[in-house]
Amino acid sequence: MRKPMDISEIETGVVGLGMMGSSIAVALCIAGHPVKAVAPVKNELENAKKTIAQLLQHAADSGLLQQSKPHYWKRITLSEDYSILQNCRLVQECVIEDKNAKSRVYQKIADQTKVDTVISSNTSAIPVSILQDMVPEPGRFLGIHWAEPAYMTRFMEITKGEKTADSHANWVYELAHLWGKEPTFLQKDIRGFVTNRLMYAVYREIFHLIESGETSIEDTDKAFRYDAGSWMTFMGIFERMDQMGLSDFRETFQRVFPKLSNTSRVPEMMQEMVAGKVRGVQQARGLYAYSPEEARAWENAFAKFNKEIYQLADNYQKIKNE
Amino acid sequence: MRKPMDISEIETGVVGLGMMGSSIAVALCIAGHPVKAVAPVKNELENAKKTIAQLLQHAADSGLLQQSKPHYWKRITLSEDYSILQNCRLVQECVIEDKNAKSRVYQKIADQTKVDTVISSNTSAIPVSILQDMVPEPGRFLGIHWAEPAYMTRFMEITKGEKTADSHANWVYELAHLWGKEPTFLQKDIRGFVTNRLMYAVYREIFHLIESGETSIEDTDKAFRYDAGSWMTFMGIFERMDQMGLSDFRETFQRVFPKLSNTSRVPEMMQEMVAGKVRGVQQARGLYAYSPEEARAWENAFAKFNKEIYQLADNYQKIKNE
């Protein structure tokens, strides 16, 4: 019989310490792992230290820590040197969405680790089967797709490439439950993954409706927030069909599907945004107008919201499981 | 200068007292209107009395009542007789999605009311411009699209038909704010409305992914609930783009749009569901398996969730407006 996993003895690594990588390092650490965090880009290390400290504080404020903050802090090792990864059983890559950059990173990870160390990518842009071929011993490679903030959200997609070994994929799936995730397992290596694919279908349709003058950005957001936002934390889209009653859907599909946008074209509006260097709320320069103070207030409010929606989702998962 | 509206003096009517109509009657009543509720279908009246009493109790339990419950209860008149509508300034139709049935109802409403009484439909299936032509004095007709439970959700779409008079549409828009709604105004008469259209784009894509073996119903729901469900109450989809940062979207659109489903075909799965008389959670016979007890527990949990998410959305709207 296999020994049950002792998470505190399983070293994990993270390479790439931008916002997502820092957030994943905190998630792995507060789940109980010793964490080796590598900054592969010059000068990333100092920023990462600050970011990780802030995120750990946020996790503490949100009541997610079982132990004291220093207990976790000292279990995260930060370095620019890949050799700290040598005892890791799992290394998560979080660098930019560029094949060449990722290829170099995988080689450096492989140089320092054992042949059965699992290497995973957070990519949502490049197929796992393509990245896999850049990895020595490709059977140990898979996609682990996190949602921000990684230490709070339940979401996780685990994606196998064509060559991923079942044993490794199953081990990660089991581990993910110990991280407090509700992982979904993708047997196939699809680009974009489930939620992203569905959101892109939404984007295609909404840009179409806006470009044809049917609605506006503001009205869309209002409608979505107060309509879909009033049930989506409680149920998925098929559970929603069950709740609405299924009888009218066939007829509606028949009527509406032929009206939906089938375009492959990137919307003009998006071209204009990119040309206008619209970058989003972090730069206080987005589709909406924000002063720097407003942008900060917005980010703070969302951090607080995250905590509350996490708790709400958790309570209802318990009620539904009773 | 126009007198400010005194809502307690504006009589409103509801015709059709299924779940949605009953819920709208409660919404109009607790907003302050005297409400005349007509049951056009034989035997609907007794059920409607029970349903409205239950919903009023739910609203009371949720802390939505300014006055005592009996105060509101006695301001709702229930009848099978359309003549109770004669002093109504607005009559909302909530009967089945059938043109002939709606046409008969509009005629009966028009027979009892003044020519400037606004008549509205909750339809999300038939274009407002088509229904409008069945109404004597079509300029006073428009779509008012509510979300369940009507007395709790902020969502509301007000849709003009080709012949709808601006004065009537503006009056309803103003009134909707007194109902505690965040209405969106649709200048054009599109089928399906914004949120529905976007959800149908989601349905088309997800049935495609499931039929091609890429994912399952259960995994989709899990992914959507824990991913989209973790932000959608806080922000709309364009606010989300701002929050994510906009830089990668153009490239991703270019890559993913050509992969999205363009089908007009109703999915086979849906045909099978309809053939199998799968009807949803209310009949304890849905896409998922529910015992009657589980179905009840599920409905109760959702009613409780509704109250909490309403409060959460409200708190964050205040924070964002600060």
From TrEMBL, chains A, B:
Domain 3-hydroxyacyl-CoA dehydrogenase C-terminal intervals: 192-290
Q: Which InterPro entries match?
A: 3-OHacyl-CoA_DH (IPR022694), 3-OHacyl-CoA_DH_CS (IPR006180), 3-OHacyl-CoA_DH_NAD-bd (IPR006176), 3HC_DH_C (IPR006108), 6-PGluconate_DH-like_C_sf (IPR008927), 6PGD_dom2 (IPR013328), NAD(P)-bd_dom_sf (IPR036291)
Family matches, as SUPFAM superfamilies: 6-phosphogluconate dehydrogenase C-terminal domain-like (SSF48179), NAD(P)-binding Rossmann-fold domains (SSF51735)
The membrane-spanning stretches of this chain are: 12-33
From the UniProt record, list the coiled-coil ranges: none
Q: What PROSITE patterns does this protein map onto?
A: 3HCDH
Alphabetically ordered keywords of this record? Membrane, Oxidoreductase, Transmembrane, Transmembrane helix
Report domain 3-hydroxyacyl-CoA dehydrogenase NAD binding positions.
13-188
Q: Which family does it belong to?
A: Belongs to the 3-hydroxyacyl-CoA dehydrogenase family.
Listed name of the protein: 3-hydroxyacyl-CoA dehydrogenase family protein
